[in-house]
């Protein structure tokens, strides 16, 4: 796989930034419209919501809108880099990696798939964790008397930070489990590479080279 030139890297960077901005703005706009519509519906049918301060109503709209912008941007960045890497491979390497990934997924347990899902969507999970934390905290503190709006906002932020910290520690623990799972696959790939190199006289240099290239590509993707 040839190394990209400076011009290619700049073009990839520009394409990535364009994709992130366009998709993130689209997600932010859609979320803002949906959140505003829900706010109007709640204002129309809920006396409790009509009694909430304007700052809380604004937070109910802005929090998911800003969260959607950052979460969508992170997702687009990850998918862009993955598709770019796959596009740089030749068809045989790409097919071999896809087949190997399918075999790994087929023999993976539910726990392994869950760990993989959490690692793939870590920032989205943390973003929604913060959103749920700040929303739940505002709803909880609104019922408390004897506190000003500023005090409730500060207290809600502290609760949300504590909940998000728990989410960060939880996803970090899941990531460490995922690293152990990936190490098992790396050890398996390394053993397959050594076997291919050791048996190159029996299977032929071309077959050994193809096997070594496929395994090396998988290791590079894992790193």
How would you sum up this structure, described in words?
- This protein is mainly alpha-helical and 223 residues long.
- The protein has two domains: 1-88; 91-223, no CATH class.
- Helices cover 90% and strands 0% of the residues.
- It contains nine helices and no strands.
- Helix 1 runs antiparallel to helix 3, helix 3 (54-88) runs antiparallel to helix 6 (122-142) and helix 7 (149-198) packs antiparallel against helix 9.
- It is elongated.
List the helices and strands and how they pair.
Elements: H1 6-45, H2 47-51, H3 54-88, H4 91-107, H5 110-120, H6 122-142, H7 149-198, H8 200-203, H9 205-222
Helix pairs in contact: 1-3, 3-6, 5-7, 6-7, 7-9
GO biological process, one term: mitochondrial respiratory chain complex IV assembly
GO cellular component, one term: mitochondrion
Keywords: Membrane, Transmembrane, Transmembrane helix
Q: Which terms summarize this structure?
A:
223 residues; mainly alpha; 90% helix; disordered C terminus
Point out poorly predicted stretches. 186-194, 199-215, 218-222
- N- and C-termini, Cα separation: 16 Å
Output the radius of gyration: 24 Å
Number of helices: 9
Instruction: Encode the helix/strand succession as letters.
Output: HHHHHHHHH
Characterize the largest beta sheet: strand count, sense, and whether it forms a barrel: none
What kind of oligomer do you see?
A: single chain
């Amino acid at each position: 796989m040839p190394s990209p030139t400076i011009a290619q890297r700049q073009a990839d960077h520009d394409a990535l930034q364009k994709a992130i901005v366009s998709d993130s703005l689209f997600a932010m706009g859609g979320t803002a419209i949906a959140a505003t519509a829900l706010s109007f519906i709640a204002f129309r049918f809920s006396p409790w919501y009509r009694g909430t301060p304007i700052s809380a109503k604004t937070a109910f709209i802005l929090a998911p809108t800003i969260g959607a912008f950052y979460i969508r941007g992170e997702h687009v960045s990850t998918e862009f880099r993955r598709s770019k890497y796959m596009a740089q491979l030749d068809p045989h390497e790409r097919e071999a990696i896809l087949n190997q990934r399918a075999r790994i997924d087929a023999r993976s347990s539910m726990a392994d798939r869950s760990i993989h899902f959490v690692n793939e969507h870590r920032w989205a999970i943390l973003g929604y964790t913060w959103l749920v934390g700040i929303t739940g905290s505002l709803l909880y503190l609104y019922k408390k008397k004897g506190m000003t709006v500023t005090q409730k906002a500060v207290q809600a932020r502290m609760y949300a930070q504590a909940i998000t910290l728990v989410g960060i520690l939880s996803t970090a623990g899941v990531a460490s489990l995922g690293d152990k799972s990936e190490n098992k696959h790396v050890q398996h790939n390394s053993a397959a590479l050594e076997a291919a190199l050791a048996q190159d006289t029996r299977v032929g240099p071309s077959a050994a080279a193809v096997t070594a290239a496929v395994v090396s590509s998988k290791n590079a993707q894992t790193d």
